[in-house]
Amino acid sequence: MNEPREPRTLTARSILIVAPHADDESLGCGGLATILAADGRQFHTLFVTDGGASHRNSATWPRAALAAKRHREAEDALAILGLGTMPRSFLGLPDADLPPDGSPGWNAARARVVEILADAAPDLVLLPWRRDPHSDHRAAWHLVTQALEQAGLSPARMEYAIWLDELGAPEDHPRPGEMHRVSFDIADVVETKRAAVAAHLSQTTALIDDDPDGFMLDAATIARLTGPIESYWQDGEAD
């Protein structure tokens, strides 16, 4: 792996963050976003799903209430990262049940993303790794990639992996020559990134305590994703 870069060496001025769920924006690229926002770069954050499926069996947090809670948590996290006054969009697609590619629901979502791209005019897109072992992450990658093609846009793209190291099969990892790794030193803002992750109380604490099968990020996963180096995959061989 190359030495970590100083984030401000990136030349992008308009950046789109693609978060399959509220919390992916912080876990995947919270450090880079914090540093670049403070440097005057403009961000638009796109949340793809409503996040309402993390605790399917909770009686006290039915799906609609949980989705609303996760929306509020996303707003809190964006404020911590320094993106609180910048544009954001919530597609509100059903968590863990996205419409299939080519369906009316998918096509409508893609059309909305095309509109967002026209408004944001990004020269850099931060999106989930294309083969991250979570179906929503893969679908988000395909949705945004299709929208970019439809819009005729070709910004730089960097892909962050959330679950690849923990859950990825060999075929999920980059193939030889497919991608190269780029890393950034975010040591100065690690505590800010961790605070943004912690703002997602429904995902990081026992706030929802009546669903033993509900999802919660464990300490090891949070520690792995909130260290002083933030890494991404880019197309092709390293320069």
From TrEMBL:
It comes from Aurantimonas manganoxydans (strain ATCC BAA-1229 / DSM 21871 / SI85-9A1). This is PIG-L family deacetylase. Pfam families: PIG-L. Gene3D superfamilies: LmbE-like. GO terms for molecular function: hydrolase activity, acting on carbon-nitrogen (but not peptide) bonds, in linear amides. InterPro entries: GlcNAc_PI_deacetylase-related, LmbE-like_dom_sf.
